Amino acid sequence: MITDIINKKRLGEELSYHELDEFFNGYLDGKVKDYQMSSLLMAICINGMTEEETFSLTKIFIDSGDTLDLSFIPGTVVDKHSTGGIGDKTTLIIAPIVASLGIPILKMSGRGLGYTGGTIDKLESISGYRVDLSDDEVMKQVQDIGIVITGQTASLAPMDKEIYALRDVTATVSSIPLIATSIMSKKIAGGADKILIDIKVGNGALLRTKEEAQELSCLMKKIGQVYQKDVHTIISDMNTPLGFCIGNSLEVMEAIRVLKGEEFGNNLTKLCIDLSTELVCMAKGILPQDAQDMVLNAINSGAAYQKFLQLVKAQQGNLDNLVVSKKYKEIKASKSGVIESISAIRLGELSVSLGAGRVSKEDSIDYGVGIELKKQLGDSVKHGEVLARVYYKKVPRLQEYEDIFTIR
Ligand code: URA
Asked: Which of 298, 321, 376, 383 qualifies as a cystine partner to 127, CB 3.0-4.6 A?
């Protein structure tokens, strides 16, 4: 009985593969209702799942759809995923870098929900850019130019799409086994040989502590072993946003500046270099220093930027029409001092209030709004100096966001 399964998890007992299969596939078939699934998800959030349960659920998610066979592509195919953060446009930068070094990369990305932005929304700010490639188009493009960034096709782990949408509105996202199941089922179904996961920790991330991030890392690597996939992880900070820009068109423009080598030294560029270096080491089996030299050369030679242009052209995008709202307001320093913190979560909330992100799945996005930081952590500022520009369509209530910057 469905309620027996919920009750078992409520009591903290282990569910068998058969019970999980009956419950989750029953949900897709309409036999298990939203309120019953929500109840089980909350019980999982509170009581956790054993490794065995997590492996079973990952298999159920993978088996709910197709698995891509990329064995016809020569070389090691890599994939990368982030658990999500504010200003996280790393995919737009890393994928062209590694592809320009001859490493095929096939990235299926998602839309943003809540305060974390989605790569697909950022790409849709490029007019004409197609995010709906079919499986055949994906295969052809990765063979032709070694890079694809498209939306998750409906056939890969469709169970995750349904469950994720429900988790999002029932406060059941922040469960380590559920996050591991969700991410790993998509990555394994996506067919790459090696997978790099960027696990974010901080006030703008799903996970708040390093210990939780390490637990998630360990679990995802174990799931990888079950499927003979090499899984690497990097744990990175999400107390401060990545880079200077938050908002879709603004972030594409910033990614282009990084790819052109115009933005060295900030947290975004540093993380992109680290993640790309790790991917190159994974794919080519070379030493980190050699991999980093290749990554820096890909940026400095212009090869990474050229690969980005090739990607945009292949997916029919036109970069000439990227727009940012002409209307903006400025956030100014309330006193002189040093910037001690820039709150990622509060910037995420401001960007959603501007219309750069969605509150509910049905909301549409304003691609031209967002925030451009003018200062970084540790910068000295004078009273009245501009800290950020806020691009808007509907006048924002900036007085509600005075806590974004802490100055000491
Ligand atoms: N990203 C995902 O794809 N799934 C989660 O559960 C969390 C972050």
From this structure: 321
Cα–Cα distance, 272 to 92 (Å, whole number):
10
Q: How far apart are CA 21 and CA 39, in angstroms?
A: 16
H-assigned helices in 84-173: 90-100, 119-124, 135-145, 158-168
The ligand 1 atom at the shortest distance from the C-alpha of residue 173 is 6
Query: Which pLDDT band holds residue 349 (cuts at 50, 70, 90)?
Result: very high
Q: Was domain 323-407 assigned CATH 3.90.1170.30?
A: yes
Q: Which of 206, 216, 219, 220 to mutate to test the pocket of ligand 1 (most atoms within 8 A of CB)?
A: 206
Q: Looking at domain 78-320, does it have CATH number 3.40.1030.10?
A: yes
As a whole number of Å, the CA-based R_g of the chain is 21
pTM attached to this predicted model:
0.94
Q: Where in the chain is the domain with CATH 3.90.1170.30?
A: 323-407
Distance (angstroms) between ligand 1 centre and the Cα of 68 equals: 20
Task: Say if residues 120 and 252 touch (Cβ distance below 8 Å).
Answer: no
Name the CATH superfamily, with its identifier, for domain 2-48. Answer: Transferase, Pyrimidine Nucleoside Phosphorylase; Chain C (1.20.970.10)
Centroid of chain to Cα 369:
20
Summarize the confidence of residues 184-201 as an average pLDDT.
95
For 403, the token pair is 């806590």
As a whole number of angstroms, the distance between CA 388 and CA 248 comes to 16
Every domain range in the chain assigned CATH 3.40.1030.10: 78-320
